[in-house]
Design a protein that fits this description.
This protein has 414 residues and is an alpha+beta fold. It contains nine helices and eleven strands. The strands form four sheets. The protein has a four-stranded antiparallel beta sheet. The chain has a three-stranded antiparallel beta sheet with strand order 7-6-10. The protein has a two-stranded antiparallel ribbon with strand order 1-2. α2 packs antiparallel against α8.
């Protein structure tokens, strides 16, 4: 019930005018911000959806950026691996030519000069960096040169040549998120990509009576393996075999020592992460030595890198050892090229998967943007029409109020 008084019309008019002005201000704010939600009270449900959609869109953009970065890395890495494969093809041609028995000693030395230059090119590609100066083939040690070279005197050569190549990186796999709870494993380990032969470590220590004295953790090819107190050498070998690493562990029937053999071409990575199990069984040196150059001195090691293969070919040519060129060297070259081809295929498949993730995230970006537009964007044509209607109502209200209160000061001057 409204109380009828002389101020009733004026009060009602002022109230509804202020209410109309508030609505006009809100509509102007929506048009200015191009958003129909200027505060949570405008549409709480839509505001909640909008916050979640915008958060998801930010993650989608990050996923797309991650996939783009990986795609560039894979493409660059694939180029260097392919170039090294072409170099190894030329090395093989020289090995086949040098093994036919028709070349003189001087001819073989001349071939060795070219093989040495090809070796330098191989190492240069293996030490390649990206546009940010990060090593492409050093694992996660991107600020480290992947391979170091040691110079020495080679019989038959007139100057010091590369005698040994050492890997400085690690075998850690970097996991990059490219979708919700979906990751791409980035493996840039140079001692896997540029390895020629399966490696074998043969321990010489009798471990038939060995038992672990305490709970420990060993790291094999980047995978942690728990060793429990009381485990014997057979339990340790079983745990290595069931860990998923590309290594087969066996017990030598003669020496009773532990033998480790890779199931593909790569260098074995051994480390005592907690405790000293590998040091106790005589497979590695103490913890002051870092892998992969911590193998104990009494462990028999076989299987070398791509660089070892080319170095062996060059040295055999300088010596004029045709038999070694045609047997050991040529077989190792073929294994190295096979491994390079496998790694090249893996790099290509990683690139294709990164590209697929880019396409998916771009599509998701469009879909989420449409959801955000649906929930938050203002319909400009409707908003402008509503604003014009409000302005018309406001003007009509002012006009009617002016007619209701047409009295002025002049009406009282008589």
């Amino acid at each position: 019930m409204n109380r009828i008084s002389s101020q009733l019309n004026n009060t009602n008019t002022q109230y509804f005018l202020r209410q109309q002005e508030v609505k006009q201000a809100q509509k102007n704010a929506q048009i200015g911000n191009q958003s129909k939600i200027t505060s949570l009270r405008d549409d709480p449900l839509a505001a909640g959806h909008l916050v979640r959609y915008e958060s998801y869109l930010k993650r989608v953009n990050i996923f797309e950026k991650n996939a783009l970065t990986l795609s560039d890395q894979f493409k660059m890495r694939e180029g260097y691996i392919n170039q090294n494969l072409q170099i190894m093809q030329r090395v093989r041609e020289l090995a086949v030519s040098g093994a036919n028995g028709l070349n003189t000693t001087d001819d073989l030395k001349n071939m060795a000069v070219e093989v040495n230059e090809l070796l330098n090119e191989l190492i240069q590609n293996a030490n390649a960096t990206d546009q940010d100066g990060n090593s492409l083939f050093a694992g996660t040690r991107t600020n480290t040169l992947a391979f170091d070279v040691s110079m020495g005197n080679v019989p038959g050569a007139s100057e010091p040549l590369i005698e040994f190549v050492k890997y400085n990186g690690n075998v850690t796999t970097n996991r990059v998120e490219v979708d919700e709870q979906a990751y791409l494993d980035v493996e840039n380990s140079g001692n896997k990509i540029f390895w020629a032969e399966p490696q074998q470590l043969m321990g010489q220590r009798d471990l038939s009576s060995w038992q672990a004295q305490e709970d420990s953790i060993i790291n094999v090819d980047g995978v942690d393996i728990a060793v429990n107190a009381g485990d014997n050498i057979y339990s340790l070998a079983s745990k290595i075999n069931s860990s998923g690493v590309a290594i087969k562990a066996t017990i030598d029937p003669v020496t009773r020592g532990l033998n480790l053999t890779t199931t593909d071409s790569h260098q074995i990575w051994l480390q005592d992460k907690n405790g000293a199990v590998l040091n106790e069984i005589g497979m590695i040196k103490d913890s002051s030595q870092m892998p992969p150059h911590n193998i104990a001195g009494n462990v028999s090691v076989s299987g070398g890198s791509l660089f070892d293969t080319v170095i062996a070919l060059r040295d055999a040519m300088y010596k004029g050892d045709v038999e070694q060129i045609g047997s050991r060297c040529l077989g190792s070259i073929d294994q190295g090229m096979s491994n390079l081809t496998t790694r090249l295929a893996k790099s290509g498949s990683d690139y294709e998967r990164a590209q697929a993730n880019i396409v998916r995230q771009q599509t998701t970006n469009l879909n989420v943007t449409q959801m955000i537009s649906r929930e938050g964007d203002v319909d400009m044509s409707k908003a402008i029409t509503d604003l014009k209607m409000m302005e018309l109502v406001h003007q009509a209200t002012l006009s009617n109020a002016g007619k209701m209160y047409s009295s002025s000061l002049l009406d009282y001057i008589r």
